[in-house]
Recover the amino acids of this structure.
């Protein structure tokens, strides 16, 4: 069985086979990877507990699949090209041979610092090659990595370290992001005041920002590397792992205030990310692939590190932001490195589109053969701009739909093979069995319908549990519809059977492609000393896709509205991170509540969206007059 699909007829045949004989299909895919020992059983599952096990009894190490197996043929091929924040700083290239050496070296650093198989390691680093090296070094020795995005606050880091009981933190003195220098080590120091489990902090030098180094706890990355070099740079054999051993924990927002640690395991995740990367992007051996995501998110895990490297690809990493020093930065990188495949987010596309075509028109983008979009459904205007200005009408767009919990892409066009429609994720990949359900739990059959998107059957890359709380995993994903995995998204299936994702149906926002729970933001706002109560909803935002709109009841000390808004935003930044700051804050005297005390978010959502003419029945509210007051305030805020 070929790993790559070659035509639409091939897709249809492969998809049929994957649904009729899923275990046989996935065993055939898994045969393209290196296993130290073959599995005893392809799949053992039920969605009640839930229990999902793929390739049980199989033994492997994912880094042998990403590095060692390529060394003989691809040792001198670039594995990672790194483009720094400052275009005047030299870029770096690591071949597969060099990357393996650096991963083995840092794996030995981890061992020297007491880390063993099964230990949890928190990684809080900028987008530098050492981030990918740290991730792979953990996987090399069987340690479980928990990467935290460099924009999160000290409180968010502390929550994640404590939940996973991490023994070691890897960070840097700071990070560069456009014109800003962010003091990462200082943020980690603030977090560790609350973390008793951390025994060691390894600090990489990046910004040369002055830092506090605590004797007995903090060590420099460079010093630890020197120690390994004085030991003669011994090799670090890859730890043999079971297919179902934990590979990493990645925290994601939910509809409750506490982030949940999504758990992915070694074997199934490897097979799924490698298979989907090879197929969706139709990767060819000589191509340069550029994913603009951060490794702190699942897209970076799956489609900067594990997926591309498992397929022997050249993966480009970028430290900076698309708009600095100007809005032509991404196109400069494409031109400089002759990028063939570009995978980015609708938010980035919209912001670059808004900057004007002058930043694109003078750039040579002729190397681009395929484009991808990730994080949220891409709006039609942005799709056409991406197609015409970046792809020049010759590069198919893979508008991919998937989530942290999925491990890899579930519904997407296959570049150059599947038909495309702007804003549509189109068709499920082989092995993926979508189903639409109504609110009463009935499946909606046929085409030209919409409903809540579920999956009927497991796939190798799906989450296994939420760390330390399996019941939360069951309740969140498997309890809404019997024997189904519930995605939390609404979906339309058109007359031709093509899928279009219509957005979240729970209390989770999709801001710039990142999921943020409304409860999490409300909890942070309510921490402000002058806030009595708050309610948060999403509203359409020209660049971010969805913005955060907060309705806030303030206390007696609230006199200067603008200052209070700034104070609230500062509070949210401290507790979650700047990514969760509300875009609009409206002060209200009350919230629309039912007599039982439930906030009618439906009404607030419509007001935030400016749809005030059709709010439905408000007579059942405890105080209907409050709605008129909120409507008037929203009108004033819109100006």
């Amino acid at each position: 069985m070929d790993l790559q699909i070659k035509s639409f007829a091939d897709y249809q045949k492969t998809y049929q086979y994957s649904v009729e004989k899923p275990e046989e299909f996935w065993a055939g895919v898994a045969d393209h990877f290196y296993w130290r020992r073959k599995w005893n059983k392809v799949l053992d599952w039920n969605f009640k507990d839930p229990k999902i096990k793929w390739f049980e009894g199989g033994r492997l190490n994912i880094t042998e699949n990403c590095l060692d197996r390529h060394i003989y043929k691809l040792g001198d091929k670039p594995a990672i090209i790194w483009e720094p924040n400052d275009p005047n700083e030299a870029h770096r290239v690591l071949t597969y041979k060099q990357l393996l050496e650096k991963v083995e070296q840092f794996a030995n650093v981890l061992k020297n610092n007491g880390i063993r198989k099964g230990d949890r390691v928190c990684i809080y680093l900028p987008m530098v090659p050492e981030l990918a090296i740290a991730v792979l070094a953990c996987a090399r020795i069987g340690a479980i990595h928990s990467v935290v995005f460099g924009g999160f606050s000290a409180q968010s880091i502390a929550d994640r370290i404590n939940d996973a009981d991490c023994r070691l933190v890897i960070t840097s003195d700071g990070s560069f992001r456009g014109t800003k220098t962010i003091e990462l080590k200082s943020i980690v120091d603030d977090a560790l005041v609350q973390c008793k489990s951390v025994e060691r902090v390894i600090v990489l030098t990046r910004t040369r920002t002055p830092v506090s180094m605590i004797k007995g706890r903090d060590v420099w990355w460079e010093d630890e590397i020197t120690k390994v070099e004085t030991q003669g740079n011994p090799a670090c054999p890859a730890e043999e792992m079971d297919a179902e051993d934990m590979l990493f924990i990645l925290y994601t927002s939910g509809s409750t205030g506490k982030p949940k640690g999504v758990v992915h395991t070694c074997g199934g995740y490897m097979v799924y990310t490698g298979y989907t990367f090879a197929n969706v992007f139709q990767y060819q051996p000589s191509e340069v692939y550029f994913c603009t995501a951060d490794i702190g998110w699942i897209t970076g895990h799956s489609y900067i590190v594990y997926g591309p490297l498992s397929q022997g690809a050249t993966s480009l990493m970028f430290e900076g932001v698309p708009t600095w020093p100007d809005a032509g930065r991404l196109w400069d990188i494409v031109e400089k490195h002759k990028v063939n495949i570009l995978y980015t987010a609708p938010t980035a596309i919209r912001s670059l589109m808004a900057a004007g075509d002058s930043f694109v028109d003078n750039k040579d983008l002729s190397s681009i053969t395929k484009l991808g979009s990730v994080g949220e459904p891409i709006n039609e205007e942005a799709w056409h701009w991406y197609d015409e200005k970046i792809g020049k009408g010759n590069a198919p767009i893979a508008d991919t739909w998937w989530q942290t919990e999925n491990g890899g892409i579930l519904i997407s066009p296959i570049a150059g093979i599947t038909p495309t429609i702007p804003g549509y994720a189109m068709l499920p990949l082989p092995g993926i069995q979508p189903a639409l359900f109504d609110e009463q739990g009935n499946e909606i059959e046929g085409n030209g319908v919409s409903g809540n998107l579920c999956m009927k059957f497991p796939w190798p890359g799906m989450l296994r549990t939420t760390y330390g709380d399996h019941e939360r995993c069951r309740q969140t994903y498997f309890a809404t519809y019997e024997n189904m995995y519930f995605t939390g998204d609404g979906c339309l299936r058109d007359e031709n059977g093509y899928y279009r994702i219509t957005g979240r149906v729970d209390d989770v926002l999709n801001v710039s492609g990142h999921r943020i729970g409304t409860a999490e933001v409300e909890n942070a706002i309510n921490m402000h000393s002058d806030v009595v109560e708050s309610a948060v909803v999403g509203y359409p935002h020209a660049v971010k896709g969805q913005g955060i709109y907060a309705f806030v009841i303030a206390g007696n000390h609230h006199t200067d509205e603008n200052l209070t808004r700034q104070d609230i935003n500062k509070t949210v930044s401290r507790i979650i991170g700047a990514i969760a700051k509300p875009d609009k804050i409206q002060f209200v005297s009350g919230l629309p509540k039912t007599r039982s005390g439930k906030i009618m978010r439906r009404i607030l959502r419509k007001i935030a969206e400016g749809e005030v003419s059709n709010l439905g029945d408000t007579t059942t509210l405890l105080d209907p007059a409050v709605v008129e007051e909120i409507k008037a305030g929203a009108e004033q805020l819109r100006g």
Summary: The CA atoms of residues 541 and 547 lie 5 Å apart. The chain has a mean pLDDT of 93.
